[in-house]
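check these tokens.
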Amino acid sequence: MNSVHLSGRVSGTPEARVLPSGDDLVTLRLVVPRPAGGPVDTIDLACWSSQARRSASRLSDGDHVHVSGALRRRFFRTPGGAASRYEVEVSKLTRQRVSG
């Protein structure tokens, strides 16, 4: 089973773009704290569905969200050759209220 659930803080502004194929995509980064106040993990998110793109486009730097999706490995070319990176393909993204 490939199921990912994350809660964290949006880092930066979500980026909407149209790929050469004509597909729409919104990407963003999520900062997820580790237990006991240790370091954080920064996770790349890819929003392909219209619902996920719409939700992501409404977010701002610092918003707290919960994400459901699947882990994907993306392959691409760089000047140095082939490369890959992992990202979460978002199926659902929900803004969370932070008390305090």
